[in-house]
Amino acid sequence: IYTADSSICKAAVHAGIISSSQGGMVLVRAKEAMSGFKGSFRNGVSSNSFSGSSSHPFVLEPSSSKAEASQAPLDLLSCRSTARAHLFSQIPFNGKVEALCPAGCAQAGGAIFGTDIYTDDSLICLAAIHSGTITNAGGMVQVVILEGKETYRGSTRRGLESLEFGKWRRSFAVVAPENVPTYVALLQEVDDAPVEEVSGTMIIANGKT
Known about the structure:
- It is a single chain.
- The protein is mainly β.
- The protein contains three helices and 15 strands.
C-alpha cells in the first residue's frame, strides 16, 4: 500500500505488476486514510518509509484488459475534488471520466471559475450543480477534460455564483454520463501528482516509468 502522493507507475514496478521497460495495465484502488508506511527495495525501485498519515493511500492490482475499465468508473468524489487531482491530471484533452458526486455540495463552500467550461482547479461537483448536470442531491456525472481558455465567464445559476477568470492552462466540462463508461488513463513517464482528492475508487491505468 502506497501514500497518495506516490508515483503510481513507479509503485506498479515496485509491486511487480508491470516492468519499467514495457509498462502495462494496472488497477489502482484508493483506500481509507491510514498512518505508517514501511519502505522497501523491490524490482529495482526503492520506496521510502513514512510514519505520518496519508488521506487516501492506494493499492495496485494486475489488469489484463481495458474492458475492465467499463466496470470501473472513478467513483465517489468529495465536494472538494477538483480536476487537478492526480487521476484527472493524467487524462489527455477530450478524455472523459465518470464520477459520483455526493449530496450537499452546494452548502460545502468553495470556488468555481467559468460557465459550462470551468478552470481545472474549480470544484467538480459544485460546477456540476451550477451547470445543471446534477442537483444538490448528487449523482453520476461525466467530466470532460479540455484545453485551457483565454477567459472564463462568471455567472449565477441555481443559486451558485461562478467567478470570472483570465487565461488558464486547463479546463473541464461536466455533462450527463454516457451509457458506456469511458475512463482509460495513460500515465506518462513523469508521474508525481497526488491522488489526495479521490476516495473509494477503482480505476484503470496504463503506463510505464
